[in-house]
Specification:
Radius of gyration: 26 Å
Strand content: 15-25%
Shape: elongated
Largest sheet: 6 strands, parallel
Number of strands: 12
Strand order of the largest sheet: 2-1-3-4-5-11
């Protein structure tokens, strides 16, 4: 019996393969695929169609070595399971879609040591820009960002000192404005529910702004709860039940994000609470998914897509030669929904 041999390994396609398939010179193929030179539209389409049919992908390593850059934009975010960051990514991707720049994503899980590792790996490829969540980084991460020679845009937060460019909202201001709106609506016995804040700096700043806003109105928090782990409807229900049992005279609950707020809203409705007249509720982020609820939760839109778009614009400007650093603070609007008394 003859021995069956393994099939030969598939060699990589080259410009010559595209040249032979399209019937034009390798130099012309190179010009078309790099979008350079004076090539007729008919020839350009012929080359592109041949490359597409073959499945040819240009090797950009040589060009990257020459320029010391690749056309990738490193996007470093804490999570993709949190509904906030996919919307930020959507804004970045939409803005870069018609350019040569391509976003690539690294996830840190809110861990400084993981952010260092992801940043180190991303920078080793010499991307054309870095978009990174937050202003708080380890000393090692800050040193890498500061000395990379690559445009850096820190996103989501403007309460701090950016390394280069920065796009986001003031979370302290968002917390203060929510406190002011709650007090203006006449609520007095107010509780707060949010994540443990050692590593979620933006949630911590909102909380600090919220407590400051209440204090200016002569009100202290009546109860509070900090939880670990991700946000979920079930967690919002569970913790809201515990807080209402513990402090039954609460007349308002402010949640650090919409998802646990939605869980709390479901629990409050099950208990038959008079919302919003006797009992009010609010979250944060303005997550579109929750707009399908029968009762609209009061919230503040954190401008996620706009942050993504504006961050990408700054990277594009630097890619095209601008040297300007910029801090762009967006102004989100409070939406009282149907869970907060309004005039």
């Amino acid at each position: 019996m003859s021995e069956i041999s393994d099939p030969p390994a598939q060699r990589g396609l080259t410009l010559r393969d595209v040249s032979e398939a399209s019937g034009v010179s390798e130099m012309t193929v190179s010009r078309v695929l790099r979008n350079r030179g004076d090539v007729s539209e008919a020839t350009r389409e012929k080359v592109k169609e041949a490359a597409r049919a073959l499945g040819y992908v240009p090797n950009k390593i040589a060009g990257a070595l020459a320029s010391n850059r690749v056309n990738l934009v490193a996007v470093i975010i804490p999570s993709m399971s949190n509904m906030v960051f996919p919307e930020v990514m959507g804004g970045i991707n939409a803005q870069l879609e018609e350019t040569d720049l391509q976003p690539v994503v690294g996830i840190t899980d809110y861990l400084p040591e993981k952010e260092e590792k992801v940043l180190y790996e991303m920078l080793s490829w010499r991307p054309s820009g870095i978009i990174i969540a937050g202003l708080e980084h380890s000393e090692a991460s800050r040193a890498m960002l500061r000395n990379s020679g690559i445009p850096v845009v820190e996103i989501m937060d403007t309460d701090g000192n950016p390394i280069d460019c920065c796009v986001g909202i003031s979370h302290r201001r968002a917390g203060r404005e929510m406190a002011e709106a709650i007090l203006a609506a006449g609520y007095k016995r107010i509780g707060f529910m949010g994540t443990k804040m050692a590593l979620d700096h933006r949630a911590r700043k909102r909380y600090e702004g919220f407590v400051e806003g209440l204090a200016k109105g002569g009100v202290e928090l009546a109860d509070w709860e900090f939880y670990e782990g991700g946000s979920a409807l079930a967690k919002g229900r569970e913790l809201t039940a515990a807080m209402l049992d513990r402090t039954p005279d609460l007349d308002f609950l402010y949640y650090s994000n919409d998802l646990i707020g939605a869980g709390g809203l479901l629990l409050a409705q099950e208990r038959g609470l008079d919302i919003p007249d006797a009992f009010g509720m609010a979250g944060f982020n303005g997550v579109e998914l929750l707009q399908g609820l029968p009762t609209q939760l009061a919230t503040i839109d954190s401008c996620r897509k706009e942050i993504g778009r504006e961050a990408a614009k700054l990277i594009m400007a630097r890619y095209e030669g601008s040297q300007a650093s910029e801090t762009l603070t967006l102004a989100p609007q409070l939406n009282p929904g149907e869970t907060m008394r309004s005039d």
